[in-house]
Amino acid sequence: MNERLYLFLALLMLVVVSLIVAWIYYHLRIRKLYGQNWQTILARVIPINTGNLKIVALDLLGEADRLDRRDGPCDLDPSEIVQLLGDLPGLRTIERNCEALIDLACYCQRSYPEALVAAEELRLNAREIRWHLERLDTAARNGGSRTAFGEYAQRIATIYYLMTRRLIALYEIANAPGVEDLQLSLA
């Protein structure tokens, strides 16, 4: 009986400590964000070849602007996808840009509270991109095929492309200043 009580208390303490750590993390992140202006956050977006990104993304999306499980093969070969996106360094740039996109959505949230939903969606998309990159890293370490690399890279590019479209649409709906700069930076 005593062992169960100790186990329960230990688990309860673990949950409480986890919640406190999560609160501190998000509180520090928000404080850091509030110390930055819009131009500073936008400057963190690393330029990538958006033309190539769009080619890769639209190959998977087809006519729709949704990431559904498209039937049939895509037109691009995995080697073409790798060449268009810049291999793993290009995908790492996309990963770093995801954090800036999330921060831009959070910045918009200051004057447009409805942006919370978009910011959360961008966070989930960024998490999915990190997951795909982890799979690519694992495949590279284990000598995986370049075909799998092309498939994951195309998913990453498509998710990022949709994230940029969603962020631009958010700024347009919110009538936020700097939409043109955002479009130039992401389009």
Concise summary:
With 187 residues, the protein is mainly alpha-helical.
How is the biggest beta sheet arranged?
Answer: none
> What sequence of helices (H) and strands (E) makes up the elements?
HHHHHHHH
Distance from N terminus to C terminus (CA atoms, Å) equals: 63 Å
| Quaternary assembly | single chain
Instruction: Tell how many strands the DSSP assignment holds.
Output: 0
Structure description:
With 187 residues, the chain is mostly helical. It has two domains: 1-35; 46-186, no CATH class. It is 78% helix and 0% strand. It has helices spanning 2-34, 38-43, 50-61, 78-85, 87-109, 115-141, 146-173, 179-186. α5 packs antiparallel against α6 (115-141) and α6 (115-141) runs antiparallel to α7. The chain is flat. The termini are far apart.
